[in-house]
Amino acid sequence: MIGQTFQSEPVPTTPPAAAAAISRKRKHNSAAHVILNFGLALLFVGTALAATLLLEKLLPYPFLFAFFAAVMASAWFGGTAPGLFAVVVSTLVVDYYFIPPFHSFAIGAANGVNFAAFIACSLVASWVSSNRKETEDALKDARDRLEVRVAERTFELEKSNQGLREREHQLRLLTEVIPQQIWSASPDGFVDYCNQRLLDYVGRNIAENQGANFMETIHPADIESFRDSWSRALSAGQAFEGQWRFRGANGEYRAFFTRAVPLQNDAGKTIRWYATNTDIEEREKAEQALSQVRGELARLSRFLTMGELTASIAHEVDQPLTAIVAYGHATLEWLSASPPNIPEARQAVGRVIQDGTRAGTVLHRIRALFRKESPSKRWLSISDLILELVTFVRNETNRLGVSIRMELAPNLPKIHGDGVQLEQVLLNLVMNAIDAMRSIKDRPREIIIGARLQHENSDSNILVSVEDCGEGVKPDIAARIFDPFFTTKPQGIGMGLSISRTIVESHGGRLWVAPGRSGGAVFQFTIPLNS
Length: 531
Ligand code: ADP
What we know:
- The chain folds into 4 domains: 18-153, no CATH class; 178-279, PAS domain (Beta-Lactamase, 2-Layer Sandwich); 284-373, no CATH class; 378-531, Heat Shock Protein 90 (2-Layer Sandwich).
- A hairpin with a 5-residue loop joins strand 11 and strand 12.
- The protein is an alpha+beta fold.
- The protein has helices spanning 17-25, 31-58, 65-78, 80-98, 112-177, 196-202, 211-216, 220-236, 281-336, 342-370, 382-400, 419-436, 475-478, 496-506, and strands at residues 181-185, 191-194, 240-247, 253-264, 270-279, 378-380, 402-408, 415-417, 445-456, 459-467, 511-515, 521-528.
- It starts with 16 loop residues before the first helix and ends with a strand.
- The model is unreliable at 1-6 (pLDDT under 50).
- The chain is built from 14 helices and 12 strands.
- The strands form 3 sheets. A 5-stranded antiparallel β-sheet has the order 2-1-5-4-3, sandwiched between helices. Strands 7-9-10-12-11 form a 5-stranded mixed β-sheet. Strands 6-8 form a two-stranded antiparallel ribbon.
- Adenosine-5'-diphosphate (ADP) binds at residues 428, 432-433, 436, 468, 470, 473, 481, 486-489, 492-498, 521.
């Protein structure tokens, strides 16, 4: 069916020949025809004369009825004028041949009445005959006109039927050739039509793919969500859409984007459902591949950032380890004293545990940032995340003489997000801020990290900002700094902001840059509370 060529039926452009012939039939008024009619009248009268002369030999009186027949025949075939002509000729012939004195046009006084009766009867016969003929002609004419009308109407109907058939054919063709699966359902949701593309995909005929059978092709893991959406749409009479997997004829599932809309009557009652399934399997695969690549890039970027931080991380871990060793020695001394100083030893062991835990936390964080993990969201406090991050970069900022001020609104609601990813965003922004202030000599290097609640229209967000007092972002590059691989740093790879924006957007938020209060840049991002 799909891929067939469309051939339209020929549409009649002229009325049928029969109608034209019928309309031609009525035209009979030529001179030849008139002459023929009068000739016929003469012939009929002549025949009547011959018959009467013949019969005269057999009968005792002249059989004049033959003339009535001649008059009637003339009037019938020729109409009123030839009929009257036949009356005149018959009258003369009868007078001449059969009214005494014979062979003369004189009329004897005794025959006057008979002769007048003959003329009167002839006239009546002519009138009756021509009248009958005219009535019959009129009827025939009316019938002919009717036939023509019927032929014309039939022709018009045929033409409009053909137009309708052609439009219907084109519509059906449209539903078959568009690159989408189409299905429709009754108001109660019973799927009763699937286009050929859909049937070809599932490898069934329409009877095998209706109602519950249709639902049976949906992936078991998706069926519940499909039924939910479908039944909610049915009861609300509102369009629904979503992404579900449908099983193909080969038994494999492919992802489709389904959208169904109701057709409603003037009273707002749903009279039918129409839906399309768009195959998005390839797009899904491409997106998965892309997000895998993005994940790898994000990891690479983290790796590079961590590379930069190696010295301070080493210091961060080294500090508690040194302290642990020192407290360990002290503990030994307190214990080997005589008598052993148990309270001091206990205190020293407490410090060992404290510093061990601190070192463990740092290592845990590093491991988390390096681990190849798929994003996992949980409820977390953005303030805690910022505090952890600040602790993490403290050595680096101390080393470069950068101070960090925090403006965190109290009691911020928790957000639903991936802690490692959001920490990476914060780390990128803070490391960029540190980089932006490297050349600053004339003023204190300060980073302000803020977090507060923000209401935008009817949505509530957490707004996080990282502000520095560096050179700021020059307007000519501001539009490009979020592009992948855009960098102005000799050692930069230009992926930090691009990855950060992707992460923020995957949390339903936005990331942008604006001029800071003291000439530097302020990078801000939002995380919606309903994400
Ligand atoms: P990279 O740090 O490797 O260059 P990023 O994507 O993190 O990659 O940053 C891209 C570019 O954005 C930087 O090279 C820099 O020009 C600009 N930029 C980022 N943060 C700041 C900032 N805080 N102040 C000024 N410019 C910045």
